[in-house]
Specification:
Order of helices and strands: HHHHHHHHHHHHHHHHH
Radius of gyration: 22 Å
Number of strands: 0
Amino acid sequence: MLHRIWLGFFLVAFASAFYQWLGLGDAQVFQRMVSALFEMAGLSVELAIGLIGLMAFWLGIVAVGEASGLIDKLARALSPLFTRLMPEVPAGHPAISSMTLNLSANILGLDNAATPLGIKAMKDLQTLNTNPDTASNAQILFLVLNTSAVTLFPVTILLYRAQLGAPDPAAVFIPILIATSCSTLAGLLVTAWVQRIKLWDTVVLSFVLGGFALLLALIGWFATLSATQLQQQSSLISNLLIVSLIMVFLVTAHRRAVNVYETFIEGAKQGFETAIGIIPYLLAMLVAIGIFRASGALDVLLGAARDLVALGGWDARWIDAMPTALMKPLSGSGARAMMIDTMNSFGVDSFQGRLAATMQGSTETTFYVLAVYFGAVGIRHARHALACGLAADAAGITAAITVAYWFYG
């Protein structure tokens, strides 16, 4: 499936470039495509090298946490849930704690921490995979939950809005929370349907309903804060939790007579090796994305969508924010650029500007995560992972549009 999608990017981009040249007289389109090709090739290496230090550090910390015994306790607490959602993962397996740490980092908006932890979880799940080049059901469900994970603290989006002059940067906070929650729920439901997972189990329902009750409580608390207080609290809580986690791991391991330095070094070595191994997979995906965007294919798709909406006599303002939505599954940096461009073009507090911010926070970079996580363990056949991930993305984007009309009119 993934190889067809990848080839499709090039074929559609090539056809679009010919249309731009012969139909619209744009003789520079092929030059832009070649420039994008080289730019993305360089970017893939830069991203992988940038991940080396971060990935080595976090895998070193995780190794200390495992040696301290704390991660094992966390795994035992969550084993009832994960063993029902992922029957092939035995209770107490290291993958359970790795997945928990990754999803927790996503919830807190700690993208840099989430990536190495997610790769660690994927590697742990790979030890249970009887067909190493094909994604298992557990790996697929984990990837979908990862790409659609609820984000409680979209600090980056709030900061961009503040920099662009929004008087209330946090005005999009609750809409983002609602949209990303819809994305997570849709991802879980679709994957459970494909894999025939029983969600009506008492344990699963208890965790899911408990999680949503906590989410509603947090929304209620956040709603009482001003924009300044919300940004301060979200930043404080996120950073305090991550530093506290590191300190708890280090101190507990030391008290249990673990050589924390040597344990950290051994874990960090895995991070270096993993980051280097990602480069070919990251290169393939980013080059395809870059050439697709440079060919003008994205602009053609948006124009066609705008025409269809106009024929139905519907409001077409949401189309102006769709570049962010269409780019988000492909490239996080590309989606951020699209969001900022929309804010600059229409105004940071315009309907389009706020919708673009909501879309940015509603989903994850599905293609990027799929390429990096599966590439790190050598998986070549993604099975239904991409389809389920994109279904969650579609739900998040649809929810973002609906919530935007609800909140912003």
